[in-house]
From TrEMBL, chains A, B:
Protein name: MarR family transcriptional regulator
Source organism of this protein record: Lentzea miocenica
Lineage per the UniProt record: Bacteria, Bacillati, Actinomycetota, Actinomycetes, Pseudonocardiales
Keywords noted in UniProt: DNA-binding, Transcription, Transcription regulation
Gene3D superfamilies listed in its UniProt record: Winged helix-like DNA-binding domain superfamily/Winged helix DNA-binding domain (1.10.10.10)
Origin: domain of life: Bacteria
Pfam families: MarR_2
Keyword DNA-binding: yes
Length: 141, 141
DNA sequence: TTAAGGTAGATGCAAACGCATGGAACTTGA
DNA sequence: TCAAGTTCCATGCGTTTGCATCTACCTTAA
């Protein structure tokens, strides 16, 4: 077992444990965590976002994301309009209602995150952020 | 945005990026990553394992796990037998075929993991493992 | 001993997923 | 300029998922 494999296994385990914890919290309203993730990504990355770009951030297949966006559009949380520059593509953005929903869920969820990670020291938090950022940025190889 | 929230977002993003990378690798045979995860957990945690124990390690609802184990039993990869000490429960273990399959997939996958994490220094790998272990162990609060 | 409450895992069912594929629009090179 | 290849997103379809619920078994306490 190499160091790399131990680190990855430990990361996966932490992810699973925390995701379960967060999922069990009663803050999601009538959204799933995955749906919230889409709203959050749209709010964070700065709309409008392309489908493919959004898909890069969300752990979901392209067809599944396509249909989830469908549903969010139907529910009035996301706006999907054709991209004038590339007529194959779409431009996705939050509606005002979508932004509101994201914020209302995001606030208590952010508190849960803070609480769950409060076992780490500020130095550890910085290290964790730096290391995982390095991993995520190294998208190709 | 607190440090904790930045760290968590970065961790999630790294997880998503790496999972997509691994999923795209052609090493999974006729298993899904989630199915492999079950076999891996059984091999790592030392069988026999209770359903509920297995469920703690796998990011899947209890019913979904129950049915996945069904399928793995049907395919001859997992053995499920009643627990003599608690007749509600079951004892899950790998069959020889299951162990073989896990190893055959695990080997190349482990190499992918090593490669993907090779952007980190040994010190960073140790820090990552230590920090995420701390997070996972703090299961309750 | 037994009734009340809790825990382990299975099952019905609607919703969501991934894979394969489709059509339309962009890009490239001859 | 236009045929071949690529990219973008949507759709058909069988499989898997989560929620709610069920049954069976264990535990506690009166």
């Amino acid at each position: 077992m190499t160091r790399a494999n131990e680190a990855w296994e430990s990361l996966m385990r932490a992810y699973a444990v925390l995701m379960k914890q967060f999922n069990a919290e009663d803050v999601w309203g009538d959204l799933t965590m995955r749906e919230y993730d889409v709203l959050y990504t749209l709010s964070k990355c700065g709309s409008p976002l392309r489908m493919s770009e959004l898909n890069r951030h969300v752990l979901l297949s392209q067809p599944a994301l396509s249909r989830m966006v469908d549903r969010l559009v139907d529910r009035g949380l996301v706006d999907r309009c054709p991209d004038p520059g590339d007529r194959r593509g779409v431009r996705l953005s939050l509606t005002p209602a979508g932004r509101k929903t994201q914020q209302e869920i995001g606030r208590p969820h952010a508190r849960s995150v803070t609480r769950a990670l409060s076992v780490l020291t500020p130095e550890e938090l910085d290290q964790l952020a730096a290391i995982t950022r390095k991993l995520a940025e190294n998208e190709e190889r």
